[in-house]
Amino acid sequence: MNWQKCREFQKKIRDNLVLKGGDFDYRNLLAVDISFKNNKAFVAAVIYNIKSNCVEKKYTLIKKNKIKYVPTFLAFREVPYILRIVNKIQRNYDIILCDGHGIMHPYRAGLATHLGYLLNMPSVGVAKSYLCGNFDKPGSDYFSHENVYDDTGNLLGYALTNRKNTKPVFVSPGYKISFEKSLKLIKLVSGKYKVPEPIHVADKITKKLRDNND
DNA sequence: GCGACAG
DNA sequence: ATCTTGTCGC
To answer: PANTHER family of this UniProt entry (predicted)?
Structure first.
């Protein structure tokens, strides 16, 4: 991997961000996640109905993996597999939900943003842990949240308590959606675990795939 | 030089 | 992410 070139691409994404849109008549969402083991990538995509909070369809894919994880370059490891599985799926969804940051990234080019940019469609990122930004610790109540800012005071997203007595998750717009709509959407598909229901489902699928493979 | 660093 | 036991809170 040429990380210099990758960084340049992230800067290109940053300079072409679209943080507007996200009309709220969404019907379906696509959640994607990947597990890794023995140089293999176990990929899952879930079509989730936002209105009824139901999983409509599940897709899986297993591919060889040679790409290593390097901090701030997660998208370059995961996007190739996500694109492969996305190309197998009928485009009957309005937005993509990723297990990773959106613009809450040193170059505003986290996984969700990177993917939304390439597919030219709305996306939102939800990460389980911190990457960058300044914020006050949110309260322990369900849906309690605090803004996350960069060093110059620009809003990056939110630290959201999505489950009581648990570390917050980090919500940020990916592409073609506003901050407010991003947060609203995540609350809508919150579910009962730390990560939003669609991601939780996708994660379980990838781990089952992984464990049934060896 | 030092520390931080999604999955 | 993966590896892995006990343990705390609802």
So the answer is: ENDONUCLEASE V
Q: Is A141 labelled a binding residue?
A: no
CB-side exposure of A63: number of CA atoms within 13 Å? 17
Question: Quick check: is A14 in a domain?
Answer: no
**Per-residue model confidence as pLDDT tens digits over A36-76:** 999 999 999 999 999 999 999 999 999 999 999 999 999 99
Instruction: Tell me the pairing of strands A155-160 and A145-149.
Output: antiparallel
Q: Could you give the C-alpha distances from A188 to A29, A64, A114, A200, in angstroms and in order?
A: 11, 35, 23, 14
In chain C, which nucleotides are within 7 Å of a protein Cβ? 1-3, 9-10
Residue type at A144? S
CATH number at residue A33: 3.30.2170.10
Question: How many angstroms separate the CA of A151 from the C1' of B2?
Answer: 19
pLDDT digits (tens, 9 = 90+) for A89-112: 999 999 999 999 999 999 999 999
Where does the pLDDT of residue A24 fall: very low under 50, low under 70, confident under 90, or very high at 90 and above? low
A211 is in an annotated binding site: no
- Does the pTM surpass 0.90? The reply is yes
DSSP state of A112: H
**Structural domain that includes position A35:** 24-213
**DSSP H helices in chain A:** 3-14, 74-86, 111-119, 179-188, 197-213
- Amino acid whose CA is nearest the C1' of B6: A100
